[in-house]
């Protein structure tokens, strides 16, 4: 049984259970320093996440997007025939997660010279504010009689 009190247990946050689960899963991430990465702005609406993945091949990297959570996984394969006198370059696997805001889409990914570039774009929607006219001569009807307008 989980006895912790959550910020999202407030009645003001009804419907945010999915977000709470996402925050919990991200807080359990183990090593946030590897691999090193940059996030840069490209133009007015574009972004690029660049991960330094020296020693990885494109085939050993997997990128997925689920519920606004971008996950990059990688696993290096070791050469079983190699005999090391000194081993300073570790072969390791990683998982890096980024939470994307609503309206941010992944446009593609490129792998070049040990750098993985993930290109993102923010989709801008025109203002969704609309004015609702009030009909002062509206006949009184029961709520179930109001039909959906198209």
What keyword list fits this structure?
single chain; mainly beta; Immunoglobulin-like; 1 helix; 7% helix; elongated
Quick take:
This protein has one helix spanning about 15-25, and strands at about 35-40, 45-50, 60-65, 70-75, 95-100, 105-110, 115-120. With about 150 residues, the protein is mainly beta.
Description:
- The protein is mainly beta and 150 residues long.
- It has a domain at 32-125: Immunoglobulin-like (Sandwich).
- The protein is 7% helix and 33% strand.
- It contains one helix and seven strands, in the order αβββββββ.
- The strands form two sheets. The protein has a four-stranded antiparallel beta sheet with strand order 1-2-7-6, with no helix packed on it. The chain has a three-stranded antiparallel beta sheet with strand order 3-4-5, with no helix packed on it.
- The model has no long low-confidence stretch (mean pLDDT 78).
Number of beta-strand segments: 7
Termini distance?
47 Å
Tell me the CATH architecture of the domain at 32-125. Answer: Sandwich
Give the structural class.
mainly beta
Largest sheet features: 4 strands, antiparallel
From the alpha carbons, calculate the radius of gyration and give it in angstroms.
Answer: 24 Å
Number of DSSP helices? 1
Instruction: Kindly provide the name of the CATH class of the domain at 32-125.
Output: Mainly Beta
Question: Which secondary structure elements does this structure contain, and how are they paired or packed?
Answer:
Blueprint lengths: L16 H11 L9 E6 L3 E7 L8 E6 L2 E7 L17 E7 L4 E9 L2 E8 L28
Antiparallel strand pairs: 1-2, 2-7, 3-4, 4-5, 6-7
